[in-house]
Amino acid sequence: MAFIEPVTLTGRHVQLEPLAPGHHDALVAAASDGELWKLWYTSVPSPQTMRNWLETALSMRAHDDLAFAIRDMRDGSIVGSTRYFRVDAASRRLEIGHTWYARRAQRTGINTEAKLLLLGHAFDALQCIAVEFRTHWMNHQSREAIARLGARQDGVLRNHLRMPDGTLRDTVVFSIIDSEWPTVKRHLQFKLER
């Protein structure tokens, strides 16, 4: 049995459902809202690369990764994707990342509730001791969003990755550890109640 089994996580504002080939067209529409692939410091797939991106994400199940389509419960539309990856079952750690949202879903309660659901499943069901988040140094919006969740910055991995355009990425690493989870959980619940 895999450490992470496919699961659907449902809240009031958002539903995270295991990514499937049938999500392709809805994901193209979501990424097209804001032409997210044009942000040079992200890896959001374009309409032309979405099929390959989707197939790669699905193939990573062999490594315990679990990608989700993010559904907006207000209208039922798919507004982005996120995943568990870099899963280390022996150490009970994982990363939440590869997250992107249609422009209309950004800075709404959707991300807050999605992270609450993902973190809750990681800490409460999977008994993780730590959950990481990583982002490009230049992605200030993502860095601010991760910090607003209650994650703490662990450090910066300099010249960590080569980007598709050949530039080198400095990666900012954040984490939440199990002893912090009750406070982070309450913080996210409070944000959703407002």
What does this entry look like structurally?
There is one protein chain. This protein is α+β, with helices and mostly antiparallel strands and 194 residues long. It has a single domain (9-193), classed as Aminopeptidase (3-Layer(aba) Sandwich). The protein is 30% helix and 32% strand. It has 5 helices and 8 strands. Helix 3 (109-125) links the parallel strand 5 (93-101) and strand 6. It starts with 8 loop residues before the first strand and ends with a helix.
Broad shape: globular
Q: Tell me what the CATH architecture is.
A: 3-Layer(aba) Sandwich
**What is the CATH superfamily?**
Gcn5-related N-acetyltransferase (GNAT)
Strand content: 25-35%
In terms of per-residue confidence, which ranges show pLDDT below 50 for 5 or more consecutive residues?
none
Question: How many structural domains?
Answer: 1
Kindly, what is the distance between the CA atoms of the first and last residues, rounded to a whole number of angstroms?
40 Å
Question: Radius of gyration, Cα only, in angstroms?
Answer: 16 Å
Mean of residue pLDDT values: 93
Could you name the CATH topology? Aminopeptidase
Under the CATH scheme, which class?
Alpha Beta
Strands of the largest sheet, in order across it?
Answer: 1-2-3-4-5-6-8-7
Mind describing the biggest β-sheet? 8 strands, mixed
Query: Strand tally, please?
Result: 8
User: How would you spell out the order of helices and strands?
Assistant: EEHHEEEHEHEEH
Number of helices: 5
User: What structural class is derived from the secondary structure elements?
Assistant: alpha+beta
**What is the helical fraction, as a range of percent?**
25-40%
InterPro entries: Acyl_CoA_acyltransferase, GNAT_dom
Protein name: Protein N-acetyltransferase, RimJ/RimL family
Pfam families: Acetyltransf_3
Domain N-acetyltransferase: 14-152
